[in-house]
Fold this protein.
Amino acid sequence: MQTINFLKPNRDNIKNYSIIGSFLVLISLIDVISNAFLKTNLTFFLPGSLSSFFPLILGLIGLNMIRIDYSGNKTLDKINKNINTNNFNAVLTLLILFSIIKALPPSLSWMILDANISGDSKDACTGTGACWTYIKVWFRRFMYGMYPNEFHWRINTAFILVIALGFVGYFMKENLKKYLALYYVIIYPVIAYLVIYYLISGGSFGLQWVETGAWGGLSLTFIVSFFCLIFCFPLGMIFALGRRSNLPVIKYISICYIEFWRGVPLITVLFMSSVMFPMFLPEDFFMDKLVRVIIAITLFEAAYCAEVIRGGLQSLPRGQYDAAKSLGMGYWKMHIFVILPQALKLVIPGIANTFLALVKDTPLIFVVGLAELAGMLALAKTNPKWLGFAMEGYIFASIIFWIICYAMSKYSYNLEAKYKTER
Amino acid sequence: MNNIIKKFLPQILAILFVVLIFGFLTINAQTNMDNRGIDFGFGFLSQESSFDVQFSLIEYSGSDSYARAFLVGLLNTLLVSFISIIFCTILGVIIGVARLSSNYLIKNSAAWYVEFFRNIPLLLQIFFWYYAALRALPLPEKANAWFGVTYMTVKGYYIPAMVWENLNVFLYCGLAAIISIIVLRKYANNLRDTQGKQIPVLLYSIALLIILPLLSFLFGGVSLEFELPQLKKLSKISYIYEGGISLPPELIALVLALSLYTSTFVAECVRAGIEGVSKGQKEAAASVGLTPNQVLKLVIMPQALRIIIPPTTNQYLNLTKNSSLAAAIAYPDLVLVFAGTALMQTGKAIEIVSITMLTYLTISLTIAAIMNWYNKKIEIKEK
């Protein structure tokens, strides 16, 4: 019993224990840090396997010693409560700290310290780390694909215009606000299409024609996800209403549509759009590959959208329907003025998640030969002048996509929190 | 009269619309195929395929039929999905529980793990593992042994193969063990309900699972040997491992990417499930006098599982569908073998793409039907 008490601190001997304990933890951390950063082994005198476990044992004893309930010291209590509740937690804490410390130097040196960014050819990369020169040289290709360099301003202008038009709704006059839905569902997509067609494709107003085969890079990702996004939402709404309909034919058509698209992988849908769909078009009718892909992804995502919207429709209390009907509203009036405004508000987070999935799915268009970011990376990877930089390319693309998707998911969390409190 | 029009007009219009679209497409397809001299039919399935597949679970060569090639692709898809489902479940449960930990560091590491792997497109992750990470592995002659007998090389992962004798006897014994466990459980439940007696079912089950197959080794003439991979020199600079099983790097990259990506979604399901059980349940169970272990086993887990299983199955389904991305790194799955190579050779676009889609659709709808049945079953128990 004596020995156990010896290892069990209490409020009386807190001072000694906390000092000795923190000292032990500190030593164990210093050992790992010096091992990771300076490549020295402070515990060389210990036999092999014990030497690697030494900091863990030391740290565990230290954390065990400072684990005092209600010590009265605020910092100590906070540490104990958060990372040191029992021995198991203490071990995990130490392991996480150690692995962070161990992983830091190699990743730092690869990404920054030993990396190169100057110069404009492969020879400039002399360090052992990453070769960011590769990204720098290929940056325009990754962003704009094979689009001619001197016309990149056209893509930029088109994007700025489309985004600006998207914000028009915020600045609309009060008496025009009732047309907001009309604007976003019909007018805005048409204007956006015209802007992108005339600016990026060109062909008139003195702008040179650039065929869609030359489009690519991240801008193509944006174009595809933008069009799929604005088209799949209204389509999804129609099928969601259809699935809730009392009319059996419409209900079963909607169910078939939704279950079909949800049951197949997007890659087969893209295959269908590229090899099978042209067979179903009239003989002398040509449809651009990009347009076919956008139609395919739109039809596919509309099914997911429909399910999300249906969830919102179902969660509305029956009373809303009954109240609207008792006011003498018909089907369309009831849905447009009572049901949909409430239901759509409820499903905003779900819709945001669907859009997030859509953005993450767009790299798939690579399989039908459209070179967006992943496709450009595959192209750059096989360029004989720039062999061997796959790692840099994929890390760069991952960072870009991660930032976009993380921002979107955070935004959807915010929306969720915002609309949760209102009900 | 007005009512009847309101009821039937939209339905008739909808049917007309669908019929018109399908008719239009069929007529177009007919004229297109007539012009190009292609005829519609599934006769090609029995023809000789005359292409090779890199990795196959069943015996397959170029002289086999397209139907067999389809089967090879389907089995490869199911294999990669199955392995990834196991790994993503293990990882997902660990991460999901870790997100609820009281330890600040663990909680946040798990949260960052989820945020990190969830927000990078799956295709990029597959490319990263295949083209960047796995290419950095050592060549066969320079590889170090993992666990003494397996070799992770740039050409694939080499593991020992099991050579069985009288495998069927062993399998029958395993089956017998499982059946006897089910009977035992039924009996134990019955005993508990009628007489209030408890018997250690878990202990007996484990004992049965070990002893019965062991008996087959002793008396059934079953024997097991391991065939270890051996390094073999092909030419001056090229080495390869022979013997054992070799898992191609495509499979490893796919399993890594799929299980890491899907584990984040499984983790979220697990977390939501455990959080979904109200605190009162735990307190009530504890106040009845159950031990913490019993609280977890008898009160928390049954309720949490009810919330966890449906969305998790959905994630498994997504994983199976996502495994079709294998085509991008040339792992011979259903899409690559059938909708890729076979389509190129036969030119039967409509037939092959529809078969591929219908296959995935069948898998999805089957699992969805099982899920609906399960949901109905657990719903009845609720009061």
Q: What stands out?
A: Chain A has two domains: 2-113, 132-147+210-422.
